[in-house]
Amino acid sequence: MANEAMLFLRQFISNPLQVSSVAPSSRWLARAMAQSLGPSSGRVVEFGPGTGVLTQGILAAGVAAKDLTLFEMSPDFTKLLRQKFPDVTVHNAPAQSAVTSVQPGVSAVISGLPLLSMPLAVRESIVKAAFDILAPDGVYVQFTYGSKPPLSLEQLAQLGLKVSERPKVWLNIPPARVFHFRRA
């Protein structure tokens, strides 16, 4: 655990915009992110798993390891994830590459990516990639440290999406807000 915290801190120092937090997500945030998942969820994709806190929450919710696919850009985090979760598919690749690696029909995409620290075009491309692989009734779950969704009303309309806000997770550093995005 201490090694994971040090790895996380090193990643934050070397690339603060990519990591965007000084501490990994809490187990309470992981639980909130995986709240709509269960053993019958089917295939789930996670964007930006970092040290795997959200991954653990997804698995604890009952999603089978064989049904979970991760996309992580950091080679160091990817190595850690492959060690911690040997039965989970882990890609050392950006979220946008999911469209070339995952068959459509995924029930949920869980994102730990710091969308608010990314340029608008990158945010849109990530969310678009998620909806390219999601089933028609699938959900994209995203948290932010801000009070508003990471996409504006205009962007949501342009992408044909609607968003619902979940309760704030106060037991996270910093406190985080969870949003569920679906097709409008």
Report on this structure:
By secondary structure, the protein is α/β, with parallel strands linked by helices. It has one domain (24-183): Vaccinia Virus protein VP39 (Rossmann fold, 3-Layer(aba) Sandwich). It has eight helices and seven strands; from the N terminus they run αααβαβαβαβαβαββ. It has a seven-stranded mixed beta sheet with strand order 3-2-1-4-5-7-6, with helices on both faces. Strand 1, helix 4 (53-60) and strand 2 (68-72) form a beta-alpha-beta unit. Helix 3 (27-33) crosses helix 4. The longest helix has 14 residues, at 120-133. The protein is globular and about 40 Å long. The model has no long low-confidence stretch (mean pLDDT 90).
Number of helices: 8
Major sheet: order of its strands? 3-2-1-4-5-7-6
The level-1 CATH class? Alpha Beta
Overall mean confidence score, pLDDT: 90
- Beta content: 25-35%
Taking the sheet with the most strands, its summary is: 7 strands, mixed
Number of strands: 7
User: What is the helix content?
Assistant: 25-40%
Q: What is the CA-based Rg, rounded?
A: 15 Å
CATH superfamily: Vaccinia Virus protein VP39
Tell me which CATH architecture applies here: 3-Layer(aba) Sandwich
**Secondary-structure content class:** alpha/beta
Topology:
Elements: H1 2-14, H2 16-19, H3 27-33, E1 44-47, H4 53-60, E2 68-72, H5 75-84, E3 89-92, H6 98-101, E4 106-111, H7 120-133, E5 134-144, H8 153-159, E6 161-169, E7 176-183
Parallel strand pairs: 1-2, 1-4, 2-3, 4-5
Antiparallel strand pairs: 5-7, 6-7
Helix pairs in contact: 3-4
